[in-house]
Amino acid sequence: MRTSRIVFTVMITAILCTQVAAQGFQRESFPEGSYSPVTNVNRNGYPRVLSDNSVMFRVNAPQAQNVQIDLCGTKYDMQKSEDGIWAVTTKPQVPGFHYYFLIVDGVSTADPASQAFYGCGRWSSAIEIQEPGMDDFEVQNVPHGEVRTVYYWSKVENSWRPLMIYTPASYGVSKHDFPVVYIQHGGGEDHRGWMEQGRTAQILDNLIAKGKARPMIVVSANSNVHSRNGGMSGGYNWQGMQTFRSELLESVIPFVEKNYRVRKDRKGRAMCGLSMGGGQSFYIGLRDPDTFANVGVFSTGMFGGIQGASNFDLEKEVPGILTDTHKFNQQFDVFFVTCGEQDPRIEYTRDIVNKMRKSNVEVRFNSYPGDHEWQVWRKSLYEFVQYLFRN
Questions:
Q1: What tens digit of pLDDT does each residue of 167-185 get?
Q2: Of 239, 324, 323, which is closest to residue 283 (Cα–Cα)?
Q3: What CA–CA distance (Å, rounded) separates 93 from 97?
Q4: Are the C-beta atoms of residues 270 and 184 closer than 8 Å to each other?
Q5: Residue 74 pLDDT > 80, yes or no?
């Protein structure tokens, strides 16, 4: 049964690829005001974003019996024309980056008309909805840094593992040591998320060029770590963070500090992350003040708003944050928390921030329009890095 589903998926992909190839040789009149998103393979093809941010999809699958678009968990039934073209227009979407899939006769598959991104625990299609005023998320005519994939030896897994590392444009010409941000992805994603979906390089290039952020290195590690005893990192608690904590402190940071010209003091290091990575940053960053003086927590669910999260005991999880607040504040230059305004985590996040502020914890907080998605996290990074390494 498994083999037949794999063969069927391959057949579907081959059929759909005909659509991609054909679009390269055909031009048609698109709806006025629509545009092809940067996530498309063919900029003269589909999907198309309409003027109200709804999305028009077209799929060439004449032999299929049923085709749907699964966009951010919402399924849209497509209608088939006499020439075998399936089409549907979605409801308006919020600006930002959205994963989607085709469901062809019950089989969920990536759309060959889209570039591929690792998300939702698999290779996924995506569509980028433009947002006015967010030019700093795009490539601009400024000095550009570099993003490289390098490999380090993991003491936890006893294997080589990848890192993606951004170095600013001045790294190759400057002789001084650079501060470092260790940035963590969310569940179902990996080290590629922040550099590809998150547009880290574009954000840093543009802010540094404008003098709004200090030149810094950004290190994106894959926190999906399997320990030697077969266990895997995970869980919204201190114990669940231990596998990745060992990976970060014993393998990742030593590798970076051996191979890159970076600062090795706590004030020259920051840790931040989104969702699962926000939980890692909260626990590891705040419980390791000798390593990090700057912590950013974006859209974490550990305060509440997700299954299994309830009755979060702030003092238990970060001893001293409420009972020795003066010492806690002295240890951190920047402590920044964010969440999307339509995210089910938002009220729990606001409540915990208010609790911290009532105890005089020096915590910055901001929220942005959007749910649990990349435009919120890009804005979180955009703001966070402007606060960093100022003293």
A1: 999 999 999 999 999 999 9
A2: 239
A3: 10
A4: no
A5: yes
Alpha helices in the chain (DSSP H): 2-23, 192-196, 200-209, 242-247, 253-259, 276-280, 286-287, 314-317, 325-331, 346-358, 374-387
Query: Which pair of tokens denotes residue 374?
Result: 């990349």
Q: Hey, CA dihedral for 154, 160, 162, 163, is it positive or negative?
A: positive
Is the Cα torsion angle 15, 20, 21, 23 positive or negative in sign? positive
Tokens, residue 174? 């400057």
What residue type is 106 in one-letter code?
Answer: G
* DSSP-derived secondary structure for 216-251: -EEEEE----B-TTS-B---SSTGGGHHHHHHIIII
Q: Which amino acid, residue 35?
A: Y
- What DSSP string runs through 173-204? T--SPBPEEEEE--TT--THHHHHTS-HHHHH
What φ, ψ does residue 389 adopt, rounded to 5°? 60, 40
Task: Name the pTM for this structure.
Answer: 0.90
